[in-house]
Design a protein that fits this description.
globular; binds ligand H2B; 5 strands; single chain; five-stranded antiparallel sheet; alpha+beta; 123 residues; Gyrase A, domain 2
Length: 123
């Protein structure tokens, strides 16, 4: 069973990853990163490659894609937190994203919506 990173190790590894846009997620023991692509095809192309890579690593991202945006969350179910497997997958995804995506550092924004809220019709 994979174990959670010890606090000191987690801090050091996360510090290094923060330069590439990864953050500790809010309200969940996980890593999160948002990427921006030229268009949907570029996002999907990356996701296809990333899926094959994740499958090889037997460690898989939680992700949400809206057109050219991708929000990736990494966590390890077995231990209910961030393990070395998340750090390794984060590094592999960063290599695949090089040159095809830019980091969306505007992490303070609300989570992407599938649709804009519909304005209620007035009687
Ligand atoms: C049974 C299988 O090995 C596990 O479910 C693997 C598969 N992919 C996984 N992916 C992620 N992100 N976390 C896990 O703990 C995990 N566990």
């Amino acid at each position: 069973m994979t174990s959670k990173l010890e606090p000191e190790e987690r801090k050091a590894l996360l510090n290094a990853l923060e330069d590439t846009g990864w953050r500790a997620a809010d309200g969940q023991d996980a890593l999160i990163k948002r990427l921006l692509f030229k268009d949907f095809s570029a996002a999907w192309g990356f996701m296809s490659q990333a899926a094959l890579c994740a499958e090889k690593m037997d460690h898989h991202p939680d992700w949400r894609n809206v057109y050219n945006k991708l929000e990736i969350t990494l966590t390890t179910h077995d231990c209910g937190g961030v393990s070395v497997l998340d750090i390794e997958l984060a590094g592999a995804l960063d290599s695949l994203a090089e040159g095809v995506a830019e980091v969306d550092r505007d992490i303070g924004r609300p989570v992407m919506r599938l649709t804009e809220p519909v304005e209620k019709e007035k009687d």
